[in-house]
Each structure stands twice: as C-alpha cells, then as structure tokens.
Amino acid sequence: MGINVSTTKKTNYFYIIEGRLKTPASKDNPNAVNRTGTVGDKEYNKWELNIDSLDGMITNVFIKDQDFGRILNIIIEDGDEHMTLQTSLESNYASDFLRKAMNIDYTKKVELRSYSLETESGKTRSGFSIKQDGEKITNYYYNPVTKENVNGMPDPEKDGRHMDKDDWKMYFIKVRKFLTTMLDEELKQKIKEAQPLYVPDSDTEDAIHDTLAEEINKEAKELMNDNPKRYPDADNYEQDDLPF
C-alpha cells in the first residue's frame, strides 16, 4: 500500500504544510483534522489527513505554473494507485528533492517522508528523507567529505562570505535555474529510461486550487525570508543524523 490511509479517489493529492504531508479529506472521516486560517484576504477551512510517508515508484516529475507561483509535481505510483505530491518550487522541499533526484533508481520503489525541524541555532531545517532498499538517498550535488558542491552545482560567491540578503536571493535563483534545467534535460530522461512516464490529465495538473497554491507558496517565501544568509541546504548536509 502506498500510503497509510485508504481513500476512494483514483488519484490522491498531497501537499506539505508546516512540515507535514497532508491530503484532503471529508470532515466525516474520523481521522481527519480541521485546519483554518487566512491567506491574504481569503479564508480557508480544510479537513485533511496527516500522512507519515508515501511509497511507490516515481513515474514523473514536472513543474506546473499556477497563479501564485510554480509548483513541483512528483508522481508516485503503487499498483493502481496514483499519488501526486505538490510543493512550491521555491520551497526547501523542492530544492532538497531535486538535489537528491539523480541518485534515485527509478526501477525501484522509494519511501518519501517530509520533515521540518528547528536547529539549535533557531533556523528551520526542512526537506525530504528518501529511502530506497532501506538506504537513504543523498545529495547528488554535494560531497560531505570535502564539503564541496559537485556535479556542476553552482557555488556562492566568495564561498558565501560577505554576501547580503540580495546576494543570497540571486544565488537561490541561480541554483533553482540549475535544478530546473537538470529536471528538463537529465531527470526526465532518466525516469523515462526506467519506465514509461506517467502523463497526468488536466484534472491532475489543475489539482491545487488557488487558495492552496497561494498558501504553500507563502510558506516557502516565509522560510526563505527567515533564513536569508544561510548557505542553501547547509543544515540539510548532515541529514544522516535525522532520527528516521
């Protein structure tokens, strides 16, 4: 079974709020949790299931432009079950997944779990714990021994020293462009060589409503603004210390 909660939908949609994988649910579901709030001038009242992890075969990864930003879509299949995981392209979750994606064997199942932790320094550390055959998938673009970027990943200017907030924003954009180019030119081909790409229909592509798209993009921007000077994903390099 790909997820730890059964649903009657042919395709299940997932997103990440405050570090937790979630999926829409009926308020009649005894396991559903109510979440309310306001994004901009819009109020929302949602019933959701909290999901511990997803597992299955990754059969496509693509970017969808929404009114409030660009959304990374990860398609996971387990038998007849289709799961679409969506997160803001500006989020640490998207960056972390794309940094590890080239190390995944797409002929095998993966277990994917989101996390968001506060470090001892008070910074937010978030991303994905991805396992395959019981082993953690690591960052394809970083060597933890030499503490250097590899495989073409851009370096920040001056090794990240004396960079102001605008410098870091420009660097984040440069890295995001590098990763999206990798997605289009390398990752899709790697997945396609392992198995036929799953092409979602228009309903899947439009699964996120504007309020939710705005909500997850707002969270991504807040995380970015909270940590404007930190080396991108520096806190995530020690991911092997995570308790899962």
Task: Summarize this structure briefly.
With 244 residues, the chain is an alpha+beta fold. The chain is built from 4 helices and 12 strands; from the N terminus they run βββββββαβββββααα.
Shape: globular
Overall number of strands: 12
Report the helical percentage. 10-25%
Distance between the termini: 20 Å
Query: What strand order characterises the main sheet?
Result: 3-4-2-1-7-6-5-8-9-10
What proportion strand? 25-35%
What pattern of helices and strands is seen along the backbone?
EEEEEEEHEEEEEHHH
Which radius of gyration do the C-alpha atoms yield? 18 Å
Give me the secondary-structure category. alpha+beta
Our count of helices gives 4
Counting structural domains, the number is 1
Explain this structure.
This protein has 244 residues and is an alpha+beta fold. The longest helix is centred in the C-terminal third of the chain and has 30 residues, at 165-194. The two termini are 20 Å apart. A hairpin with a 2-residue loop joins strand 1 (11-17) and strand 2. It has one domain. The radius of gyration is 18 Å and the shape is globular. It is built from four helices and twelve strands. The strands form two sheets. Strands 3-4-2-1-7-6-5-8-9-10 form a ten-stranded mixed sheet, with helices on both faces.
